User: What shape does this take?
Amino acid sequence: MIVTTTPYVEGYRVTGYYGIVFGEVITGINFLRDLGAGIRNLVGGRSHGYEDELQQARTEALAELEQRAAALGAHAVVGVDVDYEVLGQGNMLMVSVSGTAVTLEQA
Assistant: This one.
């Protein structure tokens, strides 16, 4: 499955459109990571706990997007957009990805 932010895939032409597909993940940030991030906020530096959580959520959302596109018979998802939101009291993270599911043919 080709997943790209571009509207087309070089060397291929789009032969079918299957509509917009989504992948969403909402994850809770656990207390220890929150505590670690608070300390990092005071002393400076990167919050690896939050970064790891964000990376995992993004990976899961993209995998869900690919699964939904494949279920439609698509070969690729083009025009992918990734959005991030903080929910609740700041202890929930939502990652949402969307794009257009398409079939491709080599040009």
Q: What stands out?
A: The chain has a mean pLDDT of 86. The radius of gyration is 17 Å. The first helix runs from residue 31 to 43. The chain has two helices and four strands.
